[in-house]
Amino acid sequence: MTSVSLIQRIRWCLVFLACVGSTLGSSAHAQRVGTFKMVEGLVWIERQGSYVHPKNGDGWLPGDRLYTGTNGSAVLNLRDGTLLNLAHGVQLDFDRLTVNEGVQQEGFVLRLMQGTMRLVSGVLPQINPKLFQLETPSAIMGVRGTDFITSTSPSWWPWQRTRVTLLPDDQDTTSAVVIQVGSRTETIDQPYQTATASSDGLTQTGQTSAAALRWFGADLWSTQVAPTQSLSLYFEAGGVALTPASTAEFNAFVARFQGRTDVDFMVIGHTDRVGEASANEALSLKRAQAVSQTLNQLGFDAERTQAFGMGERRPLKHTDDEVAEALNRRVELVAR
Questions:
Q1: Which residue has the higher pLDDT, 217 or 148?
Q2: CA 63, CA 44: separation in Å to the nearest integer?
Q3: How far is the C-alpha of 225 from the C-alpha of 227, rounded, in Å?
Q4: Most buried in the list 122, 199, 238, 251, measured by CB within 10 Å?
Q5: How many CB atoms lie within 10 A of CB 286?
Q6: Exposed e or buried b for every residue in 148-163, given b needs 16+ CB within 10 A?
Q7: Which DSSP helix (H) or strand (E) runs through 115?
Q8: Which CATH class is domain 3-222?
């Protein structure tokens, strides 16, 4: 056993002892940016100088440093719908990111310091790719509409490397990962395309296969979480009032979750193409916020509901500009 391996094992043992009996109390619900949907084995968080052991349903806060031990793994949902699937031996940090453009300006940055993680991106990169960023010791990544696996060795490793593999995307979106190392960038945009970045600034692209990935990262493929439930709600033209039919559907949908404290809601607003794009983005956000506020009034925790405005970007029915289309004046209500 190497000295580095021995030190890591000792550290994990000490952290395990520190975590015994510790939980993420009610403070974890304040300002949460994500929720633990599955925790297996040894998983812990370093938060403001102390260590806590998360459970399913606990929150992840800005500034938290997340670790998985040699037998640990975790699945998290971030508030924009991003899914993180962490293998063993991961160290991951989270921080907020502010972009001074557009209606929605608050995003996030993830820092994968070591280990392997599968990431299925959520709403924010679709609104503005600048709102999401993933960093490793050797690379900075921007994504859009993407499902990918990232594996990185720690910064102190003599041959530090980051490897990114793009997975097939079943969404009707353009998927790509842009990897930046110093002043050089590489883009991967084909299923199972890979890119490798090293600390000396070089990148290489290649190709792998589903079979090879399943052998290499079986734990990332096998972990499943409960499926989401969703509902489309429709609005009267030009405002934030639901149609009578959608009001009835909303009440019936929400009734399924009354009394539960383990549900996260994501509310995504959309518009048709009547009016300016910037005004429609603002209107779509107002529609989503109106639904989110109604959820809060019904007793659902404001820290577990999040509103987003997609504007004209993702229509159900494609039309020309200035064409009113009722199917596109909608909110997607997603319960997880």
A1: 148
A2: 14
A3: 6
A4: 122
A5: 16
A6: bbbbbbeeeeeebbbb
A7: strand 106-120
A8: mainly beta
- With 50 as the cut, is the pLDDT of residue 250 above it? yes
State the Cα–Cα distance between residues 303 and 53, nearest whole angstrom: 21
Domain with CATH 3.30.1330.60 in the chain: 229-335
Tokens, residue 60: 């992840």
Percent of the chain as helix, strand, coil, to the nearest 5:
25, 35, 40
pLDDT tens digit sequence for 36-89: 999 999 999 999 889 999 999 899 988 899 999 999 999 999 988 899 999 999
- pLDDT tier at 19, thresholds 50, 70, 90: very low
Residues 6+ apart with CB under 8 A from 41: 68, 69, 71, 72, 73, 88
Q: What is the mean pLDDT of the chain?
A: 83
Give 21's DSSP letter: T
| Tokens of residue 34, six digits | 């994500």
* CA atoms of 276 and 264, how far apart (whole Å): 32
Which residues of the chain does CATH 2.60.120.1440 include? 3-222
Q: With contact defined as beta carbons under 8 Å apart, do 188 and 164 qualify? A: yes
pTM of the model: 0.80
Q: Which residues pair with 60 in a beta bridge?
A: 34
What is the CATH superfamily name and number for domain 229-335?
OmpA-like domain (3.30.1330.60)
Q: Give the length of the chain.
A: 336
The values of phi and psi at residue 193, to 5°, are -75, 145
